[in-house]
Amino acid sequence: MHYNLLSIIGPTACGKTRLAVALALHLNGEIISADSRQVYRELTIGTGKDLDEYIINNQAIPYHLIDIISASETYDVFSFHADFFNVFRGITIRNKLPVLCGGTGLYISSVLENYHMPKVDFTSPRAIELNAFQVEDLRELLIRLKPGLHNTTDLTEKLRTIKAILIAEAELKVGVGEKNIIPEDIHPLIIGLAPERELVKQRITARLKQRLQNGMITEVEQLINAGFSVERLDFFGLEYRYLGKYLTGELTYDAMFEKLNSSIHNFAKRQMTWLRRMEKHGVKIHWFTEPDVEAVIRLFNNPEIV
């Protein structure tokens, strides 16, 4: 058995992309992003796209599932799951190594825990029927279908809630929670980055200050000017939510910074909780406190190491 997928996972601000790119350079790989927001072309600074990181030693490392749709469109775990396997097959056919990198837990789990993703027709009569429902009724229905709903973004926008309901109903037909650990045709080496919590907090705060000084406010302002609603900004995540409140006068700059900084710290903790849950489900993760290219390469070349 040999590894045919390398996965770099961990909380925000832990150096995942830099490590993934360095490994792709050494192992003839291409990056597959597992970030639920970097798929949107208009979201750059707030999502930490940092495309310059994909250039190393004057060589551009190919990346996938970044900048693939407009922010006016919707994208979800169902879309990611299908796109991942299409990209994975393409990279493999080119005799290169797929390197999955990102921090969106649900996306990562859908691949590494082999979620069964039933095909769903989002234009079906059922979809049309649901569209006539009030938003609150849709939310109640989704929560009844999925009492332990972890992806609360599914409750922030009517179209997304409808899609989540259709997927949940399709899942019930094939068996709720039906999944197996690691698909038979994927043999991943999973590397988890988990720096000391205080160090992550310091990095998050420093990075937030840098992004605010380098255009993130203007980016959100442009989204507002383009007609994106407060609800849509909220759906795009923490940076867009709180900057939207600042730009519309709901928060002062200082209050925005304090709330946003604190929320990102809490988000990083939730990311780690998700990854530890994956371990409890049987996913083997090799943990590092800091990126170590040589150590990961040794592990990759010795699949018998557990």
Number of strands: 8
CATH topology label of the domain at 198-266: Helix Hairpins
The CATH architecture of the domain at 198-266 can be named as: Orthogonal Bundle
Q: Going by CATH, what is the homologous superfamily of the domain at 198-266? A: Crystal structure of tRNA isopentenylpyrophosphate transferase (bh2366) domain
Characterize the overall form: globular
Q: Give helix and strand order, one letter per element, not per position.
A: EHEEEEHEHHHHEHHHHHEH
Helix content: 40-55%
Structural class: alpha/beta
Task: Describe this structure as you would to a colleague.
This protein is of the alpha/beta class and 306 residues long. Among the domains are: 116-178; 198-266, Crystal structure of tRNA isopentenylpyrophosphate transferase (bh2366) domain (Helix Hairpins, Orthogonal Bundle). 49% of the residues lie in helices and 10% in strands. The chain contains 12 helices and 8 strands. The protein has helices at 16-27, 77-93, 105-112, 125-131, 135-145, 158-174, 197-213, 216-225, 230-235, 238-247, 253-280, 293-300, and strands at residues 5-9, 29-33, 55-56, 59-60, 63-64, 97-102, 188-193, 286-288. Strands 5-2-6-1-7-8 form a 6-stranded parallel beta sheet, sandwiched between helices. A two-stranded antiparallel sheet has the order 3-4. Strand 3 and strand 4 form a beta hairpin. Helix 2 packs across helix 3, helix 4 (125-131) packs across helix 6 and helix 5 (135-145) runs parallel beside helix 6 (158-174). The longest helix is centred in the C-terminal third of the chain and has 28 residues, at 253-280. The radius of gyration is 20 Å and the shape is globular. It starts with a strand and ends in a 6-residue tail after the last helix. The model has no long low-confidence stretch (mean pLDDT 90).
